[in-house]
Amino acid sequence: MSLLELKSIVVRYGEIEAVDGVSLVVEAGEVVTLLGSNGAGKSTTLRAISGLAKPASGDILLEGQSIVGLRPEEIVRRGIAQVPEGRRVFPGLSVRENIMLGASNRRGLKKSEIRREADEMFDLFPDIRRFADALGWTLSGGQQQMVAVARGLMAKPRILLLDEPSLGLAPVIVQAVFAIIAEIRRRGTTVLLVEQNARMGLSVADRGYVLETGKLVLSGTPTQLWSNEEIRAAYLGGRAAVA
Ligand SMILES: Nc1ncnc2c1ncn2[C@@H]1O[C@H](COP(=O)(O)OP(=O)(O)O)[C@@H](O)[C@H]1O
Ligand SMILES: [Mg+2]
């Protein structure tokens, strides 16, 4: 049984079919990348998984159990944490407080334990350790992305959903963020990663799916996807990315 399975998911915004019959699986221990250009339906797919968007039809199974219709808090409690697009670090809270918020789904934890775990997070994110007491707004984009990922990990998820962690970051920072994703996988957390940056997205992935205007058009290992001429042209730098 797969850890996560989407079966013919459809999500509409009014007339717009943002996600149009998407089926995919994520096995335990994998990093799976969902590629696609702007507006392809990547974020909506993640929002459907985390309960923030309601599918018009289809099913989403976590270890074989449907999670469609559950409240987002309940979905987090069952082990799916999402790091949303755009980072959303609380500007007036300290970095440590931002990270601690990620544990709010875990009942019966003392604040002191949460604080200790948040401080342990800095082993994985040494670049932000020195900002533990700094306010969120003082951080750079890359540092905020690290805070957002650390907050997601504080939920101790079985599967972490990452929505375009490289967006708007300088190349060297993107490298650092992807090194962390590789380390997260090494530590045993399953990751479903959404990316427009196919090169980086596939560099850490076991498998990938390509989404175009709400429909999956291709899937395979990174090697298989790289060897597809059309995909390479559209997403991997052969010509300008599809708008
Ligand atoms: N809240 C919304 N209301 C109406 N349309 C939306 C909303 N969010 C996304 N869309 C539309 O749904 C489609 C898919 O969007 P999205 O899932 O954000 O794509 P991606 O993350 O791949 O860029 C786009 O056409 C977008 O304009
Ligand atoms: Mg998006």
UniProtKB/TrEMBL annotation:
Stored Gene3D superfamilies: P-loop containing nucleotide triphosphate hydrolases
Molecular function via GO: ATP binding; ATP hydrolysis activity; branched-chain amino acid transmembrane transporter activity
Residues annotated as domain ABC transporter: 4-238
CDD domains recorded: ABC_TM1139_LivF_branched (cd03224)
Membership in a protein family: Belongs to the ABC transporter superfamily.
A Pfam family of this chain: ABC_tran
Any one Gene Ontology BP term: L-amino acid transport
Record field: transmembrane: none
PROSITE patterns registered for this protein in UniProt: ABC_TRANSPORTER_1 (PS00211), ABC_TRANSPORTER_2 (PS50893)
Descriptive protein name: ABC transporter ATP-binding protein
Keywords in alphabetical order: Amino-acid transport, ATP-binding, Nucleotide-binding, Transport
Lineage start: Bacteria, Pseudomonadati, Pseudomonadota, Alphaproteobacteria, Hyphomicrobiales
InterPro entries to which the protein is assigned, alphabetical: AAA+_ATPase, ABC_transporter-like_ATP-bd, ABC_transporter-like_CS, BCAA_Transport_ATP-bd_LivF, P-loop_NTPase
